[in-house]
Amino acid sequence: MRSPELSTRRESYNIGFADILTHYNRRKKGVILTKRRLSTSDADETLIVRPDLYARRFLDFIDKHCI
């Protein structure tokens, strides 16, 4: 049986996944550190790629390496 407080509570879930297409090396680590230092917003925002750009990159990877 639910309490009245729980029935009015709103929940939000964020789903993400790791980029398996990028080799994490010194160069990539340097880029990430630089973006975080230069960013005036939340540091995690610098690591997000727009879905349309990621989709294109993902399909290019599949074409080059899997097909």
UniProtKB/TrEMBL annotation:
<protein>
    <recommendedName>
        <fullName>PIPK domain-containing protein</fullName>
    </recommendedName>
</protein>
<keyword id="KW-0067">ATP-binding</keyword>
<dbReference type="GO" id="GO:0052742">
    <property type="term" value="F:phosphatidylinositol kinase activity"/>
</dbReference>
<dbReference type="GO" id="GO:0005524">
    <property type="term" value="F:ATP binding"/>
</dbReference>
<dbReference type="Pfam" id="PF01504">
    <property type="entry name" value="PIP5K"/>
</dbReference>
<feature type="domain" description="PIPK">
    <location>
        <begin position="1"/>
        <end position="66"/>
    </location>
</feature>
<keyword id="KW-0808">Transferase</keyword>
<keyword id="KW-0547">Nucleotide-binding</keyword>
<dbReference type="GO" id="GO:0046488">
    <property type="term" value="P:phosphatidylinositol metabolic process"/>
</dbReference>
<dbReference type="InterPro" id="IPR027483">
    <property type="entry name" value="PInositol-4-P-4/5-kinase_C_sf"/>
</dbReference>
<dbReference type="InterPro" id="IPR002498">
    <property type="entry name" value="PInositol-4-P-4/5-kinase_core"/>
</dbReference>
<keyword id="KW-0418">Kinase</keyword>
